[in-house]
Amino acid sequence: VASLPFWKNFEHLEVAPKRFWIEVGANNYNNIQHYPDFGDQDFVLSFEPLLDKYAELLTRSQPRIPGQRRKLGFQNLGRENDRGLVFPFAIGCGSPFATFTVTDHDSCSSILPTMDGDYEGSKHERDDDFDFKARCATGLETRRVPCISLEHVLEVWLPGQEIYILKVDAQGADLSVVQSAGKSLRQIQNVPCCSPCRPW
After folding, report:
1. In the beta sheet, which residues pair with residue 20?
2. DSSP of the chain, one letter per residue?
3. How many CB atoms lie within 10 A of CB 88?
4. How far apart are CA 87 and CA 76, in angstroms?
5. Domain Methyltransferase FkbM, which positions (predicted)?
6. Worst-scoring range by mean pLDDT, 14-23, 70-79, 111-120?
């Protein structure tokens, strides 16, 4: 997915990144790329354990250039764009693998169990009813996904490197994600509160 030592993943850039961003829970939409503050001095690491969403992110591996057709095809497996990598891992589970619950609305999927029948509005009156909260509360299946800690990312991949932004959208497991940074937590400069996540 990526090369080690980690600096090899941005050696194609004319200037090495000055700021690193980490995005936990991307689904099929790389939110950080749409923040006006993300620019040509930045590099993002995105984490998305749903393999279909991870694969969809990879199909956008070439950036759009105004006035030019986007070149199709993959680069290195994890190369989402020139300034980012995406990884098919969960973060902060406390073990190398975790049970990941996929919900009826997959953007709500989580390493935490769903409410299912305990949620008052979880029963639809009709099959075609769209109830976002009910669909988020209803688990469809579980998957076994690989998991790493932020401490590993910070100590092994980015040793001594400050993280400008850690964006977490982990459907209730956000605190566990941040705590998984362990003694490397001081490398993280900003953890914005964004639920739902919007530019801040």
Report:
1. 43, 163
2. ---SSGGGGGTTSSS--SEEEEEE--TT--GGGGSTT--TTEEEEEE---HHHHHHHHTT-S---TTSPPPPS-SSTTEEETTEEEES-EE--SSSEEEEEEESSGGG-BSSPP-GGGSTT-S-SSTT---HHHHHT-EEEEEEEEEE-HHHIIIIISTTPPEEEEEE--TT-HHHHHHTTGGGGGGB------SS----
3. 19
4. 12
5. 24-189
6. 70-79
Per-residue burial over 46-77, b if 16 or more Cβ lie within 10 Å, else e, is bbbbbeebbebbbebbbeeeeeeeeeeeeeee
Q: Is-contact 107 125, C-beta < 8 A?
A: no
In the chain, the N- to C-terminal Cα span, in Å, equals 30
Tokens 């998984």 sit on residue: 180
SS3 per-residue string spanning 120-155: CCCCCCCCCCCCHHHHHCCEEEEEEEEEECHHHHHH
